[in-house]
């Protein structure tokens, strides 16, 4: 079963993904099931040898739930709701058929109609969890048994003996298809992880940041209606570590720093390897005060915790995301980090504390650049 491949903690996420992927084919199948039910009115007329006024209402009654589904479907986001809504059309179509059969002078053709209904359940079941599809699909057999109480099919035993193997075969097919999608889901998930994760440190990479900053005017889902503090972290004199102990040792230091950062932040926060020995941390929903405390906690933890290579220290630049532009917030944190580097290292510096001090220097730099252009 699929639960052997998918971790129990993410089974619901998997089923939601499966529903999102197959939603349109299943929805269209439900619509076709209902619409095509009305076309059986033609065969009713053939059986009667005249206009089958008796089955007109039973055959076209399916349009009522069909219209309701068409109106409500855009609002259906959860796969559990979809199970009820889509399969309701399939069962409604079958019961409209049973209703029409009551009036037919010859009920032998009912078995062909019931076998066709299996196809509808298979098509609709593409988007549904097998654990729901199998019992819901078995309702076809139950419908035959119940309706036989008043329709009195001449060959009800034949109907059931035909329906059971089809149901078994359909169930096996659905299990195979769900497991096949599970393989696809796991591969896609791994690819997504690889595209946003740094192989060495297992922190996120810049692609993750770009996902979050994709819209400068919208808060990311992780930080909706919340403030975000950004930390820019750099290892002090990291080049000396590589030059003295080698790049393998330098990699161990980077892993050590990542572990220290993760140990000091919360589960909702994000660690991003920005490049080389630089890391960006997004503290979701944190105030400036909390952000500074966490930054200092990280700095102290790195300084006082032994690693297998050599003692290291870090400098940290801090800024507040203003809800408009993540890239600008990172630039401010970078300026604060640069200030910390220039003023002794092993420091935590907030951009707001130095903004006025570095502003004149920035203006002078701009003037020099303009004069050079002239």
Shape: elongated
Distance between the termini: 73 Å
Count of DSSP E strands? 5
Q: Secondary-structure element order, as H and E?
A: HHHHHHHHHEHHEEHEHEH
Going by helix content, strand content and strand pairing, the class is alpha+beta
Average pLDDT rating: 89
H/I helix tally = 14
User: Which consecutive residue ranges, at least 5 long each, have pLDDT under 50?
Assistant: 217-225
Amount of beta strand:
5-15%
Fold and architecture overview:
The chain starts with 10 loop residues before the first helix and ends with a helix. The chain contains 14 helices and five strands. The chain is α+β, with helices and mostly antiparallel strands and 374 residues long. It has a five-stranded mixed sheet with strand order 2-3-1-4-5, with helices on both faces.
Short description:
65% of the residues lie in helices and 9% in strands.
Topology:
Layout: H1 11-48, H2 56-60, H3 63-72, H4 79-101, H5 110-124, H6 130-137, H7 139-151, H8 156-196, H9 206-212, E1 228-235, H10 238-245, H11 247-264, E2 270-275, E3 278-284, H12 288-304, E4 314-321, H13 326-342, E5 348-350, H14 351-373
Parallel strand pairs: 4-5
Antiparallel strand pairs: 1-3, 1-4, 2-3
Question: Top keywords for this entry?
Answer:
alpha+beta; 9% strand
């Amino acid at each position: 079963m699929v639960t052997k491949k998918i971790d129990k903690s993410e089974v619901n996420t998997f089923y939601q993904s499966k529903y999102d992927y197959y939603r349109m084919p299943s929805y269209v199948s439900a619509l076709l099931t209902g619409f095509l039910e009305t076309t059986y009115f033609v065969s009713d007329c053939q059986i009667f040898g005249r206009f089958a006024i008796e089955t007109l209402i039973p055959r076209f009654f399916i349009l009522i739930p069909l219209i309701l589904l068409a109106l409500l479907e855009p609002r259906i986001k959860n796969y559990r709701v979809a199970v009820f809504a889509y399969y309701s059309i399939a069962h409604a179509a079958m019961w409209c058929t049973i209703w029409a059969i009551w009036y037919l002078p010859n009920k032998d053709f009912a078995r062909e109609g019931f076998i066709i209904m299996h196809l509808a359940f298979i098509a609709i079941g593409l988007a549904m969890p097998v654990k729901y599809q199998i019992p819901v699909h078995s309702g076809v057999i139950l419908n035959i048994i119940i309706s036989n109480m008043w329709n009195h099919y001449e060959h009800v035993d034949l109907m059931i003996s035909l329906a059971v193997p089809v149901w078994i075969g359909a169930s096996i097919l659905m299990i195979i298809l769900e497991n096949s999608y599970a393989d696809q889901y796991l591969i896609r998930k791994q690819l997504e992880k690889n595209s946003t994760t740094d192989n060495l440190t297992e922190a996120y990479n810049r692609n993750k940041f770009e996902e979050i900053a994709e819209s400068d005017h919208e808060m990311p889902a992780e930080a909706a209606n919340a403030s975000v503090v950004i930390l820019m972290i750099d290892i002090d004199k990291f080049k000396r570590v590589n030059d003295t102990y080698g790049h393998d040792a330098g990699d161990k230091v980077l892993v050590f720093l990542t572990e220290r950062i993760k140990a000091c932040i919360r589960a909702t926060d994000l660690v991003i390897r920005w490049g080389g020995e630089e890391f960006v941390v997004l503290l979701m929903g944190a105030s400036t005060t909390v952000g500074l405390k966490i930054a200092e906690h990280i700095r102290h933890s790195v300084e006082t915790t032994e690693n297998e290579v050599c003692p290291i220290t870090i400098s940290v630049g801090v800024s507040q995301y203003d809800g408009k532009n993540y890239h600008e917030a990172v630039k401010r944190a970078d300026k604060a980090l640069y200030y910390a580097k220039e003023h002794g290292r092993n420091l935590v510096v907030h951009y707001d504390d130095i903004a006025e001090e570095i502003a004149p220097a920035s203006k002078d730099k701009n003037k020099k650049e303009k004069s050079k252009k002239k």
